[in-house]
């Protein structure tokens, strides 16, 4: 059994995790840009993934917003878990953009996904419940 953290410890842990999630978007962008610049794999045939990935990204974004705004959290432990789930859902949007950019060999395809992830993550800054 793990000891319970104080609300201030949870807030600091959440802030560190939030920064990590935010920074990984830059890492994905860097890796995609470097991978495309080095030639990497040849472009895959168009399998119609763009509309599917866009739909998935919208569902993840809306889902994280609903989870964040609709469901109240009674204590700081549940607040922490809810935030991590929301950040993971947001992070999945950038992963979709990364995969789509690799598949289409076009960095510009991934930019909206990366920008959406950054915007949602910034919006979901960890603030302790009142």
Give short descriptive properties of this protein.
mainly alpha; 130 residues; elongated
Structural features, described:
- The chain is mostly helical and 130 residues long.
- The chain has one domain (7-36, 49-123).
- It contains 4 helices and no strands.
- The chain has helices at 7-37, 49-70, 76-104, 107-123.
- Helix 2 (49-70) runs antiparallel to helix 3 (76-104), helix 2 (49-70) runs parallel beside helix 4 and helix 3 packs antiparallel against helix 4.
- The longest helix has 31 residues, at 7-37.
- The radius of gyration is 17 Å and the shape is elongated.
- The two termini are 27 Å apart.
- The model has no long low-confidence stretch (mean pLDDT 88).
Quick take:
The protein is mainly alpha-helical and 130 residues long.
Secondary-structure element string: HHHH
Tally of distinct domains: 1
End-to-end gap? 27 Å
Rounded radius of gyration (Å)? 17 Å
Largest sheet: none
Estimate the mean pLDDT confidence: 88
Structural class: mainly alpha
The percentage helix is: over 70%
Percent of residues in β-strands: under 5%
Uncertain stretches: none
CA-based shape:
elongated
Count the DSSP helices. Answer: 4
Query: What is the number of E strands?
Result: 0
